[in-house]
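Recall from the previous chapter that SMILES is a line notation for molecules. Here it describes zinc ion.
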Amino acid sequence: MKTRIILLFAGILAVAVPLRSQSYSYKAPLYAELAPGAIRPEGWLLRQLQIMRDGTSGHLDEVYAKVSNSNGWLGGTGDGWEETPYWLDGAVPLAYLLNDPVLKAKVQRYIDWTLEHQRPTGYFGPLTKTEREGMTLTLANPKDGEDWWPKMVMLKVMQQYYQATGDKRVIPFLQKYFAYQLAVLKECPLGQWTEWAVSRGSENILVAQWLYGITHDPSLLELAALVESQAFPWSLWLGNRDWVIHAAAYQDEADWMHRHGVNVGMALKAPALNYQRTGDARFLSGQKTGINDLLTLHGLPMGIFSADEDLHGNNPEQGTELCALVETMYSLEQTIAVTGDVQYMDALEKMTFNALPTQTTDDYNAKQYFQIANQVQVKRGVFTFSLPFSRQMTNVFGMRSGYTCCLANMHQGWTKFATHLWYATPEGGLAALEYAPCTVEVKLGERLVSIAERTDYPFDDKIIFTIKCDKPAAFPLQLRIPSWCTGAEWDINGSETGKDTGGKLITLNRTWKNGDVLTIRLPMNIRITQWGRNSRAVERGPLVYALKLGERWEKGTEPTEGEYWSVFPTGPWNFGLPQSVIKDPAARIEVRKAVPLAPDFVWNAAHAPVELVTTGKRIPEWKIVNDVAPIPQTDRHGLFKGAVSDSTETITLIPYGFTKVRIVAFPIVP
Ligand SMILES: [Zn+2]
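With both inputs in hand, we obtain:
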């Protein structure tokens, strides 16, 4: 009886007490991150990272003036805002994932300068205007400091650098800075200089709470709570549906920072961080409500929400900024660690294998500021973006086109995905929560254990784990069965078989011996999913498929933003999918695979390792309007009732990530 009363009271509390109450009951993340060097990418993922190292990611300090010329983060008078920390945020894990001495040395300069030039108060970063004029920053004049926001990114850089190296300077550096923040934030709040810092407080909270996990200094939780109280209340907004509905209805100037896609991407982890600090599970239910609402009202078939720059509804002709995508990935990687929730693991994988690869060029030297789901051309234009920019360069592929945040920030997408393939479990084991070819090597208790993960996943359904250990080692090994998988099967050394359905984690708890081989198969069935304006997409396993089109690339130059590329299709794109295909996709769509992957694998149409062959019918009146291809009006069944070509044509679909021009969301035709 007593329990019931308490539960009832808790229920009332859930309504009455705002989710900003600050009592601490710290919950360590369910899964612990591994050091960036513990996971060695292999196969296609290694090649992707090597391409990045050889492209802009590895050379931004040479080819991009803001990061190179007398950079503020090297003590110079040049740029001292967000772009250098952004670059390091991806370049540091890249250097340690590849164990690349050249890139390690490059990033070390910026890290060393930052560590060595921390002020006695704890303040850090580029010299401020007043310091250049000869003044000293003390606790008495914190308003002579500069923007909190770029420092938040640098905190994440330091965290990763410490995880990779254990450099003893990092922890005292962070302690000192957080003590400084705690001392001055009341007088000099997050919003002192920019609204970016107010929008993105979770980045600050993340590192303070990570440090608490090491030092258990309660002042760090106090600081995290103070930052949360000054930042946008994203946890409240995500759990309270007005925010996401308002963002779907309005694209005006009022409150645009609340709808800014990159802010939203970063904010998605805020409830998990608040749960971590307070132990209040309402944060997690609010997070789930918020993410599900976001992906319903603004979701696109490639697994990300529209953000061109603002949230912009679920029409397949909307776009997404590359920064919004990579920040959302990172938020999910952190949320997975805190919650262990399979839904977020599946969501991360979907956006990584579909949305991410398409937005950069093969050599990783150019990117699109905005990609579009149904992208029938890549060119200059206004399109239907919430922020077209006056030079109309947001959709083309360029190094400096659009806004350059993405140029500096895009590297964290693949690198942090690679560092979050595996996590350590609380029971002293390992968990493969995302799949890609790699080897993980860690100490589990007294045993040095390495697990080689051989696979062509996400293009093939088989993953083989080979265990190496100096002596037999008892530990739990956890594997994710994605929610799309209806019948996973596994065996250990050809026996000890098991099977299960998707949407869960399985735990194999045994004494592992050197040479043990665990094989898991995740059969990938074709399924049809529904998207904006009653369109349909074809999915198979973790990949969504788009119409394969020939590409004509055209080079141009814009005086301010430099060289860029437009891409046009060489054939017709205005196909609908016949009802017969939608009703029985397994019978009407043929799967053609080309695995193992070619050694020169790259995410482009020529290298697509899986093709789906089916039929389509053209809709002659489906044409480009205002640069995009608005989905024709269909009935409740998604059926287009207008004129359709009499002839049925064979069409080929390839994974979305390999396309530059495409249709992914199709109308249905008779
Ligand atoms: Zn950006």
